Amino acid sequence: MELITSQDWATIYLGLIFLITGAHMVVLYLLNSGGNPIPGLGLYTVYLMAALLGWLSYALKQIVDIPMPVDVPSVAAILTSYILVLAAGARAGSTRGRTLLGLLCAAACFSVFFLSAERMFVVQYLAAGLFFTCTGILALRRAFQRNNVGDAITGVGALLMTLGVPVAFYQALVANNEASATTAAFVAYSWAYVLVIIGFLASVVIEYQQNLDQLNTKDPMTRLLNRRGLESALHTPLAQAARLRLPTSAIMIDIDSFQEINDNFGHDSGDQVILQVASFLQQMSRGSDVVARTDGEEFLLVLPHTDLEGARTIAERIRIAIAEQPLPVDGQRIPVTVSMGVASIIGEESLDKLSQDADRALQLARRGGGNRVASVESKPVHLSTVNLES
Fold first, then answer.
1. Which of 297, 298, 316, 348 is catalytic?
2. DSSP string, 338-361
3. In this structure, how many other beta carbons lie within 10 angstroms of the beta carbon of residue 340?
4. Nearest 5 degrees, angle CA 38-CA 43-CA 48?
5. pLDDT of 255
6. Percent helix, strand, coil in the chain (nearest 5)?
7. Considering the entire predicted model, what is its pTM?
8. Which tens digit of pLDDT belongs to each residue from 152-196?
């Protein structure tokens, strides 16, 4: 059996790099075709392609005696490291320091024309160490903010390169062993590259799954919960209310004369009205309350541990706040009022029963002329007599 030569190892290594990168790009672009752009995808693509060229130039330099006027692999390593910082910054939504790092990258690249190979080795790994350190910080910060393990893998991979730099310097400058220094740098680059690819891909897949989960539980326009998300969010509060015999109230909200708003101002303005009413509800609800969009212009606000009178007080406050201030939409102010139905249960009852009672109360408010709060309970119906004229 013949031994594998260095040229064969280089071919195998480059083949694996191409395979990993190709599979990575196919998966990313399949995910990106879903309509939601992936932050940093463009710059990560540039990084991957540039890194491939860098690996190729390095392999050619090792296995083929081709004279090069400048140290192309060193320049490629510096450039790709800087591009990686830009990609990590784009993904993290941070642009701070990119100009300064760009100037340092340019200076390091131009130094190849003036420095010897030994000094260029130092410049290359100092620059790469700096850029990979910045990448690691950006990725780890994003991992913490987004609770995304993929970004953590990217950060660890980048910092692995940072740890490899002093080892390479020690071998080159202290131990005077250029072969060991090159090997240490090569191993650090390889592992960093692979972990960055795996981390970025894992980060994208995790966020893609999170987006799918949100689509199943949230209204795409207002980002409020939908019916499914509402049931999931109320599972624990309703179970606690049933166990401790606590009250739970619900407020069904409907925008009055919404079809007239669409007819008079257009559907885009109608959408803006829905968004602003949704924002009102979020701002005026408490931390324990749960807001959902249940239909086109209808919303449901569920208030755990709140009795009927407390819910009516909150409903009146919301109704008055919306009615007193016309909503600014596309340079015009549209007067908007809402009708609200309030219901309350104590102990073990279903969300369906609660929302049905609130909807019955809403019908009463509508029949009363709109801009009203009505409630239903085991006692006679209560209907507010206050009606603000627009």
1. 297
2. EEEEEEEEESS--HHHHHHHHHHH
3. 28
4. 105
5. 94
6. 65, 10, 20
7. 0.61
8. 999 998 988 888 878 877 777 777 777 787 777 778 887 888 888
